[in-house]
From TrEMBL:
UniProt subcellular location: Cell membrane; Membrane
UniProt cross-references to PANTHER family, sorted A to Z: MEMBRANE TRANSPORTER PROTEIN HI_0806-RELATED
Protein name per UniProt: Probable membrane transporter protein
Keyword Nucleotide-binding: no
TM helices/strands, residue ranges: 6-30, 37-59, 71-90, 97-117, 129-159, 171-191, 203-222, 234-251
Annotated GO CC locations: plasma membrane
Keywords (A to Z) from UniProt: Cell membrane, Membrane, Transmembrane, Transmembrane helix
Species whose genome carries this gene: endosymbiont of Bathymodiolus septemdierum str. Myojin knoll
InterPro entries linked: TM_pro_TauE-like
Lipid bilayer topology: Multi-pass membrane protein
Length: 252
């Protein structure tokens, strides 16, 4: 069920699915994984799932011709660096810090989306250093909180006058390198950690493959719905979705 729903939302909102997977895994793995590494394992596993889900989602968005690959190319170099370093940094952060940071971040992004805050200029007029810094921050924060970057990339593009459907599609593409770099980082960071049997660093292998099977199937369905609904309604739904997830993590 988690795989199906997270895959659908990944395709619909271009968020990678980690926003859903992390909170649910906190509950599912709570009796199996030590609390000291529970959040790290939930995040690492979610990022590994995103690697597979994003491939399915990106292909579906690409078939609609909705991905702006030029923005993907501008963001990716520093996103890779940020994602890997974020995974390494995360191992030194406490469970409560990661949980609260995740929730506050989601609420802030939701407010930007809901109130339609945007820049004066267009994304094509941004300086190269803005792309480099933004890419690094997106990769860093995404790895720390276990997301594919859509909750940062999508608002960033929308803020700079990109249509929401194209922003979602491009964010889905951006999520792939984030997930790959961060997953490698979480494997390295948790390599010598005493975790559950069958884990790979901070990645829970059984949970990974159980979720991936359905998420890959349902991601294209989410993409289909995203390209058939009104953009304004989609933006409002995105904002509400983030607030609900933030509350669920704070209440854990």
């Amino acid at each position: 069920m988690l795989g199906a729903f997270s895959g659908f939302i990944a395709g619909l909102l271009g968020v990678g699915g980690g926003l859903i997977i992390v909170p649910v895994l906190l509950y599912v793995l709570a009796f199996e994984v030590q609390e000291a590494v529970l959040m790290h394992t939930a995040i690492g596993t979610a990022l590994a799932v995103i690697v597979f889900t994003s491939i399915s989602s990106v292909w579906a968005h690409h078939r609609h011709g909705a991905i702006y690959w030029q923005y993907f190319i501008k963001l990716t170099p520093t996103i890779l660096l940020g994602a890997f370093s974020g995974a390494i940094i995360a191992q030194y952060l406490s469970f409560d810090f990661l949980r609260i940071f995740f929730a506050i971040f989601e609420i802030m992004v939701a407010m930007i989306m809901w109130f339609g805050i945007s820049a004066a200029g267009h994304v094509d007029n941004l300086n190269r250093w803005v792309w480099l810094v933004t890419g690094y921050i997106i990769g860093l924060v995404s790895a720390i909180v276990g997301i594919g970057g859509g909750t940062m990339t999508t608002p960033f593009l929308i803020y700079n006058k990109v249509d929401i459907k194209n922003a979602i599609a491009t964010s889905a593409a951006v999520g792939m390198p984030i997930a790959i770099a961060a997953s490698i980082g979480f494997i390295v960071a948790g390599w010598n950690t005493k975790n559950v049997v069958g884990s790979l660093g901070f990645i829970h292998i059984q949970a990974l493959f159980s979720i991936v099977v359905m998420s890959v199937i349902f991601a294209p369905l989410g993409v289909k719905v995203a390209h058939s609904v009104d953009g304004k309604k989609l933006k409002k739904f995105f904002a509400l979705f983030l607030v609900i997830l933030a509350i669920s993590v704070l209440s854990f």
